[in-house]
Design brief:
Blueprint: H1 20-46, E1 55-62, E2 68-75, H2 76-92, E3 105-107, E4 112-113, H3 114-139, H4 146-163, H5 168-176, H6 182-204, H7 211-220, E5 227-236, H8 245-264, H9 269-277, H10 282-286, E6 296-301, H11 302-308, H12 310-316, E7 326-331, E8 334-344, E9 349-359, H13 368-387, H14 392-402, E10 414-419, H15 420-424, H16 431-440, E11 450-454, E12 458-469, H17 470-490, E13 497-501, H18 503-508
Antiparallel strand pairs: 1-2, 1-13, 3-4, 5-6, 5-8, 7-8, 9-10, 9-12, 11-12
Helix pairs in contact: 2-3, 3-6, 4-5, 4-6, 6-17, 11-12
């Protein structure tokens, strides 16, 4: 027997694991899944959903152990919101123009572009909002107006989009890039308005000096007070891409020469303006359109001038300064052309007050009978509100809760620096405005006094705050702003707060 001979295999009929019908079903399912993923991915990317998922910038605070602790993560959409604001500012001031764009390299050494600088500035702006809101929470401050103000902004947005034959979301995408929707926009501006409301609260309370304090400071340092009226224009040295020291020096000399040419041609404010215009082009020249004069500064307090340039402040507030004096003030970025007009202590009385405004919905009808009837209802409502006002704080709360003038809610509708002459400038002034002016500037007017002002457009409840000379009013505002700036700087004196811009995420969502 041959044991090496293989036995014949037994024939079997095995069933396939998957039937042909099942295979076809799986193939179809895979194709459908591929299409769903592809279309879904296309939809997610091009509708900007990822811009609300991907982080645009992260903020950290270094703790005592040197560890970076996360404070806040902003999505790409939020960073783009602030980027858009910074971009508009750069265009307005002529930093960006037809020849210098966001893609222009600012620093050849590391390849930093102007676009990179804009995103850094945007991150800085957002950091301020974050810090204000953190401090407000620590202080137990509760926003009363941010939601209403944000809702009003959304309504204005919808109307603007409609007038341009666009949906609100499409309009937002055009302004801020993919992913910006009405809901996202409202969330972002609400946080911004909350910060602004707390800032206004600090400016009006904690940091605002009294009239007595201003007078004491003036007596201690008379050279630092009063206001100046002057013309000034800054000629920046043109950017040198390769950072060659010799070229930088030449660019600086060219800026100084322009400033010198202006002062050499100046005999009065009008000639100063004309001389500046003769040396400018593009957006910079456009700022002078319609007889505008961006060089003119009227009744500027010393703190405001100091923030612009310390040397400029020292020159303008010098005790020997005479009307018509001109000079060139250099700094490392360029040079100022300066024309001195006057220095004074404007003793004209100014008043401050708050306004709660209810709009007359019948005003658009033009029907005098309907307007009058609606105003009667509004006056009744105003009187009910007035009855509940016990002090300035309660009036502010009423404004934030009920006023129809949403753009002024954050400040509690505070109006400052109003002079009697400002009413004289109103053409065809209504009788109600004349009566209001007389009420405001009555010598017997006192803090907490209230009056009702009727107009065709609506009815206002006015709460009188105070009256003081114009120069003191200007100093109050200037010193309050300086103190606020110092306070903000004190929040992070050791630069323990840092941020990281997620450039890849930003670039991925930019088109």
């Amino acid at each position: 027997m041959d044991y090496n001979k293989k036995a014949a295999k037994k024939k079997t009929n095995k069933k396939p694991l998957l039937s042909e019908q099942t295979k076809r079903r799986i193939a179809v399912a895979c194709l459908v899944m591929f299409l769903v993923v592809s279309v879904g991915g296309y939809f997610i990317y091009f509708t900007g959903v990822l811009a609300n998922v991907l982080t645009g910038v992260s903020y950290y605070r270094t703790d005592a152990d040197g560890k970076a602790v996360s404070i806040y993560d902003a999505k790409v959409t939020e960073l783009n919101y602030y980027y858009s604001a910074v971009y508009s500012q750069y265009r307005q001031y002529g930093i960006l123009n037809d020849s210098i764009t966001v893609d222009t390299v600012f620093n050849q050494a590391d390849g930093t572009t102007y676009g990179d600088l804009l995103y850094e500035s945007a991150a800085d702006s957002l950091e301020q909002v974050i810090l204000y809101n953190i401090e407000a929470e620590k202080a137990g401050y509760k926003s009363e107006s941010a939601d209403a103000a944000a809702e009003a902004m959304v309504e204005t947005l919808r109307e603007t989009a409609k007038s341009n034959n666009m949906t609100a979301d499409d309009y937002l995408n055009a302004l801020y890039g993919r992913g910006m929707t009405v809901r996202v926009f409202k969330d972002i501006v609400t946080r911004e308005l909350m910060a602004d409301e707390y800032k206004e609260y600090l400016l009006q309370t904690q940091f605002r000096p009294s009239e007595e304090e201003i007078l004491l400071l003036r007596d201690m340092s008379p050279a630092d007070y009063g206001t100046v009226t002057y013309n000034a224009y800054f000629f920046g040295a043109e950017y040198v891409e390769d950072q060659d020291p010799a070229k930088i020096e030449e660019a600086h000399k060219a800026a100084v020469a322009k400033a010198q040419a202006v002062v050499d041609s100046t005999v009065d404010p009008a000639s100063f303006r004309e001389a500046c215009m003769g040396l400018l082009t593009g957006d910079a020249l456009g700022r002078f359109a319609l007889d505008a004069d961006p060089t003119f500064n009227e009744n500027a307090p010393s703190n405001a001038v100091k923030q612009q340039n310390q040397q400029l402040k020292d020159y303008l507030f010098s005790s020997d300064r005479q009307a018509g004096d001109v000079t060139v003030i250099e700094d490392e970025m360029g040079a100022y052309a300066v024309y001195f007009g006057s220095r004074n202590f404007d003793e004209n009385p100014t008043v401050s007050y708050r306004v709660l405004y209810l709009e007359n919905d019948e005003a658009v009808s033009g029907d005098a009978v309907k307007i009058s009837a609606e105003n009667t209802k509004l006056v009744q409502e105003i009187n009910e509100i007035k009855a509940g006002v016990t002090d300035e704080a309660s009036f502010i709360s009423a404004v934030k809760l009920k006023s129809d003038e949403k753009s002024r809610l954050n400040s509690g509708a505070l109006v400052t620096g109003i002079t009697e002459a400002s009413f004289d400038e109103i053409e065809n002034i209504a009788e109600s405005e004349l009566v209001f002016s007389q009420w405001l500037f009555d010598a017997n007017r006192a803090y907490g006094d209230m009056t009702i002002v009727e107009r065709d457009q609506g009815v206002s409840l006015v709460y009188f705050v105070d009256s003081c000379p114009a120069w003191i009013d200007a100093e109050m505002a200037s010193i309050a702003q300086t103190r606020l700036n110092e306070w903000v700087s004190s929040l992070d004196p050791q630069n323990l707060i840092t941020y990281s811009i997620h450039t890849k995420n930003v670039d991925f969502m930019t088109y």
